[in-house]
Amino acid sequence: MATVSPSSTPNPDATKYDLDTTLPSTINFKSAEAAAGNSFAAAVFETPGVASIFGVKNFVTVTRMPGTEWADIHAAVEKAAAEHL
């Protein structure tokens, strides 16, 4: 059960999530279809407005579609990390 700690980035449409665990491999997905084989990323992509997910070592960066609210994405990343990492 991993936990996340969000922090802002220079890009207002991206948030970095520090993990208290290490990812088993680098992830880089630009669509839900591409993430289908990764349970964590697939769960995050279920949230409307997620544009891409990149992760390496102990962090994940999620980019949203412009204008999407962050609240649902934050909740989805927290839930997916707890359930799949």
Structure characterization notes:
The chain has 85 residues and is of the alpha+beta class. The chain has one domain: 2-Layer Sandwich (Ribosomal Protein S8, Chain: A, domain 1). Helices cover 26% and strands 32% of the residues. The chain contains two helices and five strands. The chain has helices at residues 39-45, 70-84, and strands spanning 4-8, 14-19, 27-29, 50-56, 59-64. The protein has a five-stranded antiparallel beta sheet with strand order 1-2-5-4-3, covered by helices on one side. Helix 1 packs antiparallel against helix 2 (70-84). The longest helix has 15 residues, at 70-84. The protein is globular and about 30 Å long. 24% of the residues are buried. The model has no long low-confidence stretch (mean pLDDT 96).
Which SSEs are present, and which pair or pack?
Layout: E1 4-8, E2 14-19, E3 27-29, H1 39-45, E4 50-56, E5 59-64, H2 70-84
Antiparallel strand pairs: 1-2, 2-5, 3-4, 4-5
Which stretches are poorly predicted, pLDDT < 50 over at least 5 residues?
none
What class, by secondary structure content? alpha+beta
Q: What value does the average pLDDT take?
A: 96
CATH superfamily: Scaffold protein Nfu/NifU, N-terminal domain
Principal-axis shape: globular
CATH class: Alpha Beta
* Spatial arrangement of strands, main beta sheet: 1-2-5-4-3
Secondary-structure element pattern, one letter each: EEEHEEH
The count of helical stretches stands at 2
**CATH architecture name:** 2-Layer Sandwich
Count of extended strands: 5
The proportion of residues forming helix, as a percent range, comes to 25-40%
Radius of gyration: 11 Å
Whole-number count of domains: 1
Taking the alpha carbons of the first and last residues, their distance comes to: 6 Å
CATH topology: Ribosomal Protein S8, Chain: A, domain 1
Relative strand content: 25-35%
The major sheet is characterized as: 5 strands, antiparallel
